């Protein structure tokens, strides 16, 4: 893949994303200029970049989208939902093509065919002026139309009168494709829509076959039209058949074509003599009278009569052109067609052919400098303009090896500077353009002049400005970040050995000073290590907007599909969490949102019937709460009916009637997390089949998070996901049991209590105790882990250390030997042979080098 | 002779790479800026022999950037080429009024770009 293409692909994806997001916002705030500008510019930039590659279909599609957006931006049309749909479809298609470019470096073979209907749809929405695409300007400009003679003279005379009074005149030659009837075209209807048609003419194409072999389903007609509509309108009308239409501007004199029988030229000799006199005297009124008289006198079918009619028309124009009149009079005199060559336009500059050494570009640039100089300018602007033009031309000359000429230029320019007027300079340029600068001997000196000498060094391309744009591009293999994090984790752990070292320095080696220095150093390393850890965690942090940004589209598309009106509100999308958390959030969230759209929110009729606004709302809200990121999906739909859930659960044999009677409403609602549970009477294609909230529940649990559902019947439902901010660092509490240390994840622990031995009761062979009116079962860690129990003197009435944890939703008390400190550890899963041992979530290194086993209580209990 | 230094200003990252590849390939030194504001900052630092400026850009468009470039006495003589997808005369004249010397239309043909830059920086054409 070329570097250019490699650069283009991510840029294109970014631009598509920006445009798509913008479009959705735009739909909500159609008058927001910033958004439309952003969307337009993204598409515009995309078009510009795509032009560098052989992806015509893509460029055309983007171009069509750009034109439509341009029209919206210019306020020519209002953006409606259907257009947004079309634009989104187009962007989706472009996205697919970008994927294809990434895989195969080319567009699929059917790209052109795919693009065409999309382009047609987009162009169909464009108002006339906006669709003035390049494709249509490609319409052949074939000089003067060659068929004007086919038009009757009366039509041409009328058109002439129209044209000389200042209207544009276009000649259209439309040759519909022979098989056009099969592609749904209707040439006649198209032509009838032609704006400001002056005259139209239908002619058979070539010679028609005899009737018995004639193919009536082929279009064998050509359409000839004269119109005075603006070119853009004509091009718009014929935008789908551009290649079948030739449009040519018609100068009025092109219409002057004589007809009739030629006769002896002497018929009008007297008139010609009188006309020449009148012409010399510029007495057009007398000439007109003479023409009228002559017309009455001679046979109207004569060629001379036709010439007289035209002369009359020329004289009748608002500003009679004496050159035309002269040409007509001469035509009558000679009996030949009038010659307008000299008469047509103002005399052209007699430009000699450019010297072969000068490229066309050289002349173009030189010519453009003249244009720049002739533009009107403020007095203070003009000197600036002269300066830049002189510099440009100097370089131009030097580049072309004409450095000698710069002296002449300098003279002209100093005059121009002095008087603040570019006249002298313009004269010089005109002269050069006319004669070619090479007419003056070319210099042989090597190019030596550079007006703006490259001065002091400027910041290198890698500095801040370009970095700002590359930052978004930085893509690092996640494994590298993970490695970095592991290393920092080990650094954090190994620095923990320094306090031990300090203690040894003091106690074993008796050096208090050394101990103090080590402690000082420890403080510094500790701070650095913590900052590094924070920084690396930050690298892995992503805003939840990464996940949220797909929802506007999802909600929009699904609500349209379902026929519900739903608006999505997003809050706190900047809330950040670890990449792995964010990434695994996507699927559960989509599921929850789809559920809400599909089952939660009622149809508009139903909403109105229950006195709600027909417009439903879904709220996605993210925020940080302690060390957890919380995401709430709320809707104002019908809510969950606990009774319906119970009934369904019983029907599905998830619970028994007796169990159901005991369930609180909240517990009933929680049943939706039960595997395979679904309350909707009909399974729509939105929420899928057989995959219920239990999947959501499991996914979130796997991330050490929790799901809660709260619902008020008739008012709505809120699903709340709480997840750890980061899975990288786990806070554990160290406990000692059976003379060994174990870690227990802090998020499992509810509280620590000391329970007097006397308060422990045995109920049904299970030890229990009562904590604030709740009966809590006790589990002895030593027994759970099969460790030797602590030798305890029966007589002593010691308290038991009990760690109250919440496992699978219910509290349990773990009897341990003693509590130790809580600490942040980097949890590493067991691997190798140990990987399959249940009951442990992983290991962590302690400061003194020991390994701490962290328990997984869910598996143990 | 020292290398001529070109400032290219375009919001398209691909376009910038294109300019860089084409112009560096032709022996020019290239610096990039992603919008008019950056472009102006860069231009004001000086040292450029020519600027290639896209018209439609965020923050500050090409017209405004060129206008402001021309407002600086040190920069008023540097040849400026604007690039745009529009080829309407009014757009060209707008660019010239702002202070441009020449314009190219997208998609830019590498040969035209090189020759234009050579001609306008006084580098001998081959």
Automatic annotation (TrEMBL), chain A:
Entries under PROSITE patterns matching the protein: CHEW, HIS_KIN, HPT
Residues recorded as bearing Phosphohistidine in the entry: 44
InterPro entries documented for this protein: Bact_Chemotaxis_CheA (IPR051315), CheA-like_dim (IPR004105), CheA-like_homodim_sf (IPR037006), CheW-like_dom_sf (IPR036061), CheW-lke_dom (IPR002545), HATPase_C_sf (IPR036890), HATPase_dom (IPR003594), His_kinase_dom (IPR005467)
Residue ranges occupied by any Histidine kinase domain in the UniProt entry: 482-727
Compositionally biased intervals (Low complexity): 446-461
SUPFAM superfamilies, A to Z: ATPase domain of HSP90 chaperone/DNA topoisomerase II/histidine kinase, CheW-like, Histidine-containing phosphotransfer domain, HPT domain, Homodimeric domain of signal transducing histidine kinase
GO cellular component: cytoplasm
Coiled-coil segments: none
EC number: 2.7.13.3
The organism's place on the tree of life at top rank: Bacteria
Domain HPt stretches: 1-101
Span of domain CheW-like: 729-861
Reaction(s) catalysed (UniProt annotation): ATP + protein L-histidine = ADP + protein N-phospho-L-histidine
GO biological process terms on file: chemotaxis
Residue ranges, annotated region (Disordered): 438-467
PANTHER family: CHEMOTAXIS PROTEIN CHEA, SENSOR HISTIDINE KINASE CHEA
Function: Involved in the transmission of sensory signals from the chemoreceptors to the flagellar motors. CheA is autophosphorylated; it can transfer its phosphate group to either CheB or CheY.
Record's protein name: Chemotaxis protein CheA
């Amino acid at each position: 893949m070329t570097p250019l293409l490699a650069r283009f692909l991510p840029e294109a994806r970014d631009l598509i994303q920006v445009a798509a997001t913008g479009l959705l916002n735009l739909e909500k705030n159609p008058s927001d200029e910033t958004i439309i500008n952003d969307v337009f510019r993204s598409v515009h930039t995309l078009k510009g970049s795509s032009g560098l590659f052989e992806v015509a279909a893509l460029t055309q599609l983007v171009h069509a989208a750009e034109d439509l957006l341009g029209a919206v931006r210019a306020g020519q049309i209002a953006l409606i939902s259907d257009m947004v749909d079309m634009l989104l479809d187009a962007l989706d298609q472009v996205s697919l093509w970008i994927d294809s470019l990434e895989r195969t470096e080319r567009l699929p073979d059917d790209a052109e065919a795919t693009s065409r209907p999309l382009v047609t749809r987009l162009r169909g929405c464009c108002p006339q002026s906006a669709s003035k695409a390049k494709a249509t300007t490609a319409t052949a400009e074939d000089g003067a139309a060659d068929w004007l003679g086919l038009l009757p003279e009366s039509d041409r005379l009328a058109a002439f009168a129209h044209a000389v009074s200042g209207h544009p005149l276009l000649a259209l030659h439309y040759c519909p494709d022979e098989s056009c009837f099969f592609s749904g075209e209707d040439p006649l209807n198209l032509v009838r829509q032609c704006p400001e048609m002056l005259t139209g003419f239908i002619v058979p194409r070539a010679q028609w076959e005899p009737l018995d072999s004639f193919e009536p389903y082929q279009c064998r007609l050509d359409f000839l039209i004269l119109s005075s509509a603006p070119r853009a309108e004509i091009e718009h009308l014929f935008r789908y058949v551009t290649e079948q239409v030739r449009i040519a501007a018609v100068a009025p004199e092109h219409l002057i074509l004589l007809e009739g029988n030629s006769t002896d030229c002497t018929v009008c000799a007297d008139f010609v003599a009188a006309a020449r006199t009148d012409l010399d005297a510029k007495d057009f009124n007398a000439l007109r009278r003479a023409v009228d008289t002559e017309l009455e006198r001679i046979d109207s079918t004569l060629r001379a009569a036709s010439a007289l009619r035209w002369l009359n028309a020329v004289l009748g124009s608002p500003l009679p052109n004496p050159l035309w009149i002269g040409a007509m009079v001469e035509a009558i005199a000679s009996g030949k067609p009038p010659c307008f060559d000299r008469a047509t336009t103002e005399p052209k500059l007699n430009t000699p052919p450019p010297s072969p050494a000068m490229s066309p570009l050289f002349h173009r640039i030189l010519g453009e400098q003249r244009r720049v100089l002739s533009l009107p300018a403020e007095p203070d602007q003009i000197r600036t303009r002269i300066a830049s033009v002189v510099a440009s031309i100097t370089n131009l000359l030097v580049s072309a090896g004409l450095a000698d000429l710069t002296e002449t230029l300098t003279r002209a320019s100093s005059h121009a500077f002095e008087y603040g007027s570019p006249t002298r300079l313009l004269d010089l340029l005109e002269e050069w353009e006319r004669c070619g600068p090479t007419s003056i001997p070319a210099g042989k000196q090597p190019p030596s002049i550079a007006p703006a000498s490259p001065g002091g060094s400027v910041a290198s391309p890698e500095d801040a400005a370009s970095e700002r744009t590359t930052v978004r591009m930085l893509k690092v293999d996640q494994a590298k970040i993970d490695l970095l994090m592991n290393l920092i984790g080990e650094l954090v752990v190994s620095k923990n050995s320094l306090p031990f070292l300090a203690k040894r320095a003091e106690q074993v080696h008796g050096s208090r000073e050394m101990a103090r220095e080590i402690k000082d150093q420890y403080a510094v390393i500790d701070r650095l290590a913590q900052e590094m850890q924070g920084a690396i965690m930050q690298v892995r942090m992503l805003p939840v907007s990464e996940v949220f940004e797909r929802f506007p589209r999802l909600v929009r598309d699904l609500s349209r599909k379902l026929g519900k009106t739903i608006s999505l509100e997003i809050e706190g999308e900047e809330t950040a969490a670890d990449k792995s958390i964010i990434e695994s959030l996507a699927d559960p969230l989509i599921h929850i949102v789809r559920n809400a759209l599909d089952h939660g929110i009622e149809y508009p009729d139903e909403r109105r019937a229950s006195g709600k606004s027909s417009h439903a709302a879904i709220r996605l809200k993210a925020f940080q709460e302690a060390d957890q990121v919380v995401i709430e999906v709320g809707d104002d739909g019908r809510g969950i009916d606990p009774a319906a859930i119970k009934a369904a659960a019983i029907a599905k044999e998830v619970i028994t009637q007796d169990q159901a009677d005991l369930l609180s409403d909240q517990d009933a609602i929680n049943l939706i997390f039960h595997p395979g549970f679904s309350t909707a009477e009909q399974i729509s294609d939105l929420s899928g089949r057989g995959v219920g909230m239990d999947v959501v529940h499991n996914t979130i649990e796997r991330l050490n998070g929790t799901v809660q559902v709260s619902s008020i019947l008739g008012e709505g439902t809120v699903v709340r996901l709480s997840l750890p901010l980061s899975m990288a660092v786990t806070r554990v509490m160290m406990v000692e049991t059976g003379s060994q240390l174990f870690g227990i994840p802090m998020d499992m622990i509810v509280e620590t209590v000391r329970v007097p031995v006397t308060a422990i009761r045995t109920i049904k062979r299970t030890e229990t105790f009562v904590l604030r009116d709740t009966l809590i079962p006790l589990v002895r860690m030593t027994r759970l882990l099969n460790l030797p129990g602590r030798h305890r003197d029966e007589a002593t009435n010691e308290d038991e250390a009990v760690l109250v944890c919440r496992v699978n939703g219910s509290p349990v008390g773990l009897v341990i030997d003693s509590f130790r400190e809580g600490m942040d550890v980097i949890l590493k899963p067991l691997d190798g042979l140990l990987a399959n041992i249940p009951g442990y979530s992983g290991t962590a290194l302690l400061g003194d080098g020991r390994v701490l086993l962290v328990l997984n209580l869910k598996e143990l209990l | 002779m020292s290398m001529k230094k070109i400032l290219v200003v375009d919001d398209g990252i691909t376009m910038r790479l294109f300019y860089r590849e084409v112009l560096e390939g032709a022996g020019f030194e290239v610096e990039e800026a992603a919008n008019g504001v950056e472009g102006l900052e860069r231009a004001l630092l000086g040292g450029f022999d020519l600027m290639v400026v896209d018209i439609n850009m965020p923050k500050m468009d090409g017209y405004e950037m060129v206008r402001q470039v021309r407002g600086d006495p040190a920069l008023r003589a540097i040849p400026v080429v604007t690039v745009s997808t529009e080829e309407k005369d009014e757009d060209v004249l707008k660019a010239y009024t702002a202070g441009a010397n020449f314009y190219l239309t997208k998609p830019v043909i590498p040969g035209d770009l090189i020759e234009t830059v050579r001609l306008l920086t006084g580098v001998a054409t081959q």
